[in-house]
Design brief:
Elements (H helix, E strand, L loop, with lengths): L16 H26 L10 H11 L1 E4 L22 E8 L9 E9 L6 E5 L4 E5 L3 E4 H21 L5 E6 H10 L3 E5 L10 E5 L1 H9 L8 H19 L2 H4 L2 H12 L3 E3 L4 H10 L8 E5 L2 E6 L5 E5 L1 H12 L3 H8 L3
Parallel strand pairs: 1-10, 2-7, 4-11, 5-13
Antiparallel strand pairs: 2-3, 3-4, 5-6, 7-10, 8-9, 12-13
Helix pairs in contact: 1-6, 1-8, 2-8, 4-5, 4-8, 5-6, 10-11
């Protein structure tokens, strides 16, 4: 009997045909929930156990672009250049959100590290502010999103690995249109805003459609802490989207799930190693994850400053970043988050 509960009997009930049918129904709901959780976070999808798996597999296979080539992987080093032994504990996904607008070549406006511990009991998401001032291999000091502008995913991955001293295993990139379309697929989201803004958002709860959600995750100039505040908004939106999409009525609706799957994957690009089989395996492993198991935090920074070129920057908290890297390497993110992240 597998550890993820597939095929297990309902505790305390006899092994009857009716019991097995009920378990299968629960398994299908669990598979759909896993699908939605993964899509909400970074667009990965699983069709196993879903009645319309053929349709979903066709949709995903046609939508997802495995066009990110990370090239030959370099050894992981710490910020001081010293090699760091890989522990093989847990899996790290780098999720990039690119905000492409008319006349704009695209920027990495969302940079989130998603850590899945080895026991698959949680999903821990760390937002890295785009203005974080870091060392970029071969390019000197600059904002972290400049790594993406200079060398796309390979250089951003190398920058993140050096900053944290951990291996990034997979990369997924989507654009903000995906956020908009996923929101509309579930009929809108209810999201909490820490502060209002010029985009019509009020402090407190807001009911947003796709167009409004797009404005919500883009706004930063009228917010009190600029990019930091926007990052918190983006994480609040992801959580709201996940909670809405995993409501029982949405999970049970094949049309809603199919629309959501299409919206999440039509602009999704992943690395060559993230095959459909790998995506399926990851999502099945996370089938028991619920909303409370998805944790959000912001990468440690110590304040604001100005670069030698006059740009506004976020200053890295080096001690805090070292603690974060150690927690990722040793699969102790739960302890790290308890100590260093305030509600």
């Amino acid at each position: 009997m597998s550890d993820n509960g597939v095929g297990s009997l309902i505790e305390g009930l006899p092994d009857t045909q009716e019991t097995r049918r009920e378990q299968k129904r629960r398994d299908r709901r669990g598979s759909r929930r896993a699908l939605i959780v993964m899509l909400s976070i970074f667009g990965l999808i699983v069709g196993t156990g879903v009645a319309y798996v053929g349709y979903l597999a066709f949709t995903v296979g046609n939508n997802i672009d495995q066009g990110i080539d990370l090239g030959e992987r370099q050894p992981v080093t710490a910020p001081d250049g010293e090699p760091v032994a890989e522990t093989g504990t847990g899996t790290n996904f780098l999720v990039i959100g690119s905000d492409t607008r008319p006349g704009d070549a695209g920027r990495s406006d969302v940079i989130v590290l998603v850590h899945v511990p080895e026991d698959n009991s949680a999903v821990q998401m760390i937002h890295f502010p785009r203005d974080l001032y870091v060392d970029i291999p071969g390019r000197g000091k600059n904002k972290i999103n400049a790594a993406y502008a200079f060398g796309r995913e390979p250089l951003l991955v190398q920058t993140m690995e050096q900053l944290l001293g951990v291996r990034i295993h997979h990369v997924a990139r989507t654009d903000f249109e995906g956020f908009k379309n996923m929101t509309d697929a579930v009929g809108g989201v209810r999201v909490y805003a820490e502060e209002g803004g010029a985009d019509g958002i009020v402090k407190g709860w807001n009911d947003l459609n796709g167009e409004q959600a797009l404005a919500f995750v883009r706004e930063r100039y009228t917010l009190s802490e600029g990019d930091i505040s926007r990052g918190r908004r983006q994480l609040a939106f992801i959580k709201a989207l996940m909670l809405e999409a995993t409501k029982p009525e949405n999970i049970a609706n094949p049309i809603t799930v199919a629309k959501f799957a299409n919206a999440a994957t039509e602009n999704l690009v992943v690395d060559k190693g993230l095959t459909t089989r790998a995506m399926t395996d990851y999502a099945i492993a996370l089938r028991n994850v619920r909303g409370g198991d998805v944790i959000f935090a912001t990468a440690p920074f110590s304040g604001y400053g100005t670069s030698p070129q006059g740009a506004s920057i976020d200053i890295v908290d080096e001690a805090g970043m070292a603690e974060l890297g150690e927690a990722l390497r040793t699969d102790s993110m739960d302890t790290y988050l308890d100590v260093f992240v305030t509600p």
